[in-house]
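Morning run. Coffee first, then this:
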Amino acid sequence: MSSPPIRVLVIDDDEEDAMIIADMLHDDPEASFVVEQCTLPQQYWPSVAAQQHDIYLVDYRLGPESGLELIRRAAREGITRPMILLTGQGGDGVDQLALKAGAADYLVKGHADFTQFARAIRYAIERGEYIGRLAASESQYRHLFERSPVPLLLLEPVGLKFVAVNDAAAQQLGFSKDELLEQSLPSLFAPGELERYLGLKDTWPRGYFEAGVWSFLRKNGSVMHADVVRHELDLEGMTGKLILARDVTDKVETQEKLREQSAALARAATHDRLTGLVQLETFEARFAAMVTEAVANETPLALYFIDLDRFHTVNETLGPAAGDSLLVTVAQRLREAFPPDSLFGRFAGDEFIVAVALDAATPEPEAFAGLARAVIAAPVETGDYSLYPSCSIGIAICPDHGDELSSLLRLAEAAMMRAKAYGRNRTQMFDARMGRELQDRLAIGARLRRAVQSDELDLHYQPFFDALTGRLAGFEALARWDSPELGMVSPGRFIPVAEQLGLILDIGRWVLNEACRQMRSWRDAGMPLLPVAVNVSAVQLQQEDFSPYVAALMRRYRLPEGAIEIEMTESALLVNPEQVVANLQALRHAGVRLSIDDFGTGFSSLSYLKQLAIAKLKIDRSFVIGLPENANDAAIANTIVTIAHQLGMTVTAEGVETSSQREFLCGLGCEYLQGYLLGRPLPADQAEQLMRQGGAPRSSLPTD
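And here it is:
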């Protein structure tokens, strides 16, 4: 199939020259030409503007208009069909002017045969078609660049200044395109990314490269995370960079949130939620590593057991929120008192533990404890109140006192308890005496559980007497423990251990049941039903089922009102007061008499005495022992009696051991007396014998 003829328009005011060119082209055996001629602008320009021909041969001289002007005009108007400039003679740089104006070629009439003409025309047409395709490709590329939904940014190779950006890039970064073209890539980097780029750029390969996720600043200051792909392009003889920046901000932020949540869960598993200090299990693992290092370095470790003094009062008076705030503050202050490489943990409640590696450069262990007590003692503002906390600290040393955390904690806690016993807000180093006491408590604790289950406990009954008549007025039930291994164990030894081990509730229930059972037994034996006082702990009073339990015992053993007297300390009223008050009111309505033991030694609350209709106050033996000689003891005893009588209560003085004490207390108006002068605690059968004898008190101090 033959190719279509090439349409040629000769624009020349010399008709003879045009005919010569037409004749030459007709002789070309390789191509077919259709040649037309125009001489006037009003004839040839419409044809040129409409691009009706494949090529235009333009004479250099066109009368008033130069052929160069026509070529320049065609270029300005976007004419893509090729033009060849014809001239009668060469020289004067016409060829350069022609090419610069946009001509495809330049031929000298009279010096070019038909072969040169034909070849020049074919080459010009082919070049024009190539340029047209290239222009179309560039147009298509620009269209794709502009309309791409992926942000595209073209950078110059040196300063990374933007030379072209598309709408998607401008939209996602929040700039106009003109604003972006005034900036460079480094100016959009989020903090830290420029340093990252400078450290990596020389390691990246040439050409196509997936650079990963980078962070950029939008115009409003927010961060856009983008997955970046880089292409290298030829840009006017230099290697430019085309950046494809796909927005992955939502994905990155979601992943970051997941990482944060995962980290938070991991931290929650190892750290205390409130204070941020490590939990015991994590503390133990890290402490073991500290011990290994200390053994290798032949240096000791100090373990501090820190307990806040009277923390429960804050919780009970100001509420748990105030207590939590105080714990957070204390945890922060502990970090100020100890070296930064110390191990900090929350043991339980208001108890903290700290492990410190000691060396020649560190102070004595007590120095850190003193600093800790000092920084903790600073006032803490919480709501409308200023708290003035203090703490008691016990210290154990590894390896002197052991290298296992469990044993060191036990020893440090024992030292802390000794510090509290000495008056609180103190530091105590563990020593051998405490070790013996701790072993004693451990021995007692190990056997006390079995004692409760094996009926090794017993009740003795100490009588109290009417101060005026001397007649037996009732008994106080006192727990005794005769251990097969330990012998007779005093309540002062086993009751604190029972409280620590959580056995006090079981023992308390046993005491109440045994006292009620014994009263029923005495009654069935024909004895007078004298009241029996039972001491109860603060823990018992906080139990919701305490008052129902006592009422059930009274029904079970058919005891009348007034048969049971409940004794409690003043401080027991301050712990969980709502539940305590509810229990005591229920007991009073059930016919149980209420008595305050050791009055004046704790936190006195006259409002509770009035609210709860307390029936009796007991003067503690510490105020009786100095009577009548000690003026302070005399004044305190007189004040207690006066308060009780003003509030309609009776008074029992305990610890009466001399006749002068008895006479003084009778003179004050005490209704009841109790003490070794009058009668020691007795087993149940001896107490029954005392009742059968009429309940006469002993008249002199015991000699044994």
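The chain has 26 helices and 28 strands. Good start to the day.
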